[in-house]
Amino acid sequence: MLLEDASTWLATTFPEIPEVASGRLASVLRIVVCAMVKRSLIADRTDNAEQVSDAGGPFTTSMTFRNAEGNFFITGQEREMIEKALNPGTTAFKNVSCGGW
Considering the entire predicted model, what is its pTM? Predict the structure, then answer.
């Protein structure tokens, strides 16, 4: 169920993904979907805490939470992989035009 949900999330986020992917794009999508589901499942088992700190002296306690609800997300590296797989002929250089003052 989660694999299908993650696939739908990706297809909605990147509408240019074809209904049936093949080759390198299919491999990249499989890697990304599995990573998304893994993060979601890990968030479920760890009480959503990424870091827990305690001290004894003047009573310090802190917790840092990450992906508390187990939501799907992709990393910058995964986004870059998807974009390169969707547009294999593009280069890393981009042309940006700026207007005057």
Answer: 0.64
